[in-house]
Amino acid sequence: MGTSLVMIVTAALAIPLGVAAGVYLEEYAPKNWVTDVIEINVTNLAGVPSIIYGLLALGLFVYGLNMGQTILVAGMVLALLILPIVIVATREGIRSLPQSMREGSYALGADQWQTVSRHILPSARPAILTGAIVGLSRAIGETAPVITIGALTFIAFLPPSPVQDTIPFINFDWLESPFSLLPIQMFNWISRPQASFHVNAAAAGLVLLSMTLLMNSVAIYIRYRLRKVL
Fold it and tell me: CA distances (Å), 205 to each of 28, 146, 194, 209, in order?
């Protein structure tokens, strides 16, 4: 449950921001030294060790903004981790489109936003989706950033459910809940001497692998469907 909820926050933050940043840099940003510096930094950030993001989140979110060691903070730090991946994938998807698509849209009277929203983004969706899933697949197995911000190594409760049976039927209390993740549980169990904990760690590894394969399978299916439509 902790892994699933953290991935929901990560996807909700990283994908819209990453796509918006990629579209801006590729379609709207002026070509000058400022954008060149931004592009170099975005590319370099994709290779920064994950522990650096954990230290950044610890200093900024946990201590600086006093947001606590919660699911929301974990999702934010993992969103920062995969944000460069989503930005680069979005830009590469947009760059792969022919210039004639833009020229044809402008020739029919569309402005730049209509061209981007109705032609560029729909055509680049397969590449954007691939980048998003690759980023989430990396985030789901990360331990260093979430350990740095204070993820629990032992947990005996579930976070509050995002869905409730009373109006408005949506609950956001889970965002402020302490959490643990499957990789942390695996590390905790495998470090114990008892064989039963090693069995638990292997089972958790299968669950984590299944979640990763499920995300990739959904992405491949959606990408296939989108390419058939296009």
Answer: 43, 18, 17, 6
Q: How many CB atoms lie within 10 A of CB 165?
A: 7
Domains delineated in the chain:
2-181 (1.10.3720.10)
Q: How confident is the model at residue 170 (pLDDT cuts 50, 70, 90)?
A: confident
Who wins on pLDDT, 159 or 205?
205
Cα distances from 60 to residues 56, 66, 70, 112, 188, in angstroms, run 6, 8, 14, 37, 27
Q: How far apart are CA 155 and CA 200, in angstroms?
A: 15
Q: HSE-up of 145 (CA within 13 Å, CB side)?
A: 27
Query: What DSSP assignment string belongs to 127-177?
Result: HHHHHHHHHHHHHTT--HHHHHTT--SS--SPPPPSB-SSTT-B--GGGGS
Q: Which amino acid is at 133?
A: I
Distance, CA of 21 to chain centre: 14
Task: For residue 106, count other CB atoms closer than 10 A to its CB.
Answer: 13
Nearest Cα residue to 86 out of 25, 141, 33, 36: 25
pLDDT at 66 over 70: yes
Q: Average of pLDDT values for 148-152? A: 75
What are the φ/ψ torsions at residue 170 (nearest 5 degrees)? -120, 135
The position carrying tokens 């994908």 is 15
